Amino acid sequence: MSPDKKKKLNILRKELDILDNKLIKIIKIRTNIVKKVLKLKTYKNEIVDKKRISIILRNIKKKSIKNNIDPKITHKIWKNMILSYIDFEKRNFKKK
Fold this sequence. Notes:
mainly alpha
């Protein structure tokens, strides 16, 4: 790799690092909201809402296409995020 390309690569990587830091802050906010949602659930079987998951993924696909983003990328990201939060809720569920 040429020195010029290496310099450009490093600049882009720094931009990605900055963006990752912003994403971490957003994930923290999302996690706090999920904690509040979890407190409202009485039974563990209320954690997974397949209908809502389908709606979310369908909406993400539409928004991705509208914004010229590969929908496969956003589908994988959201699907994994949803599954991660389902796991989080199951691990943190407390019977009332």
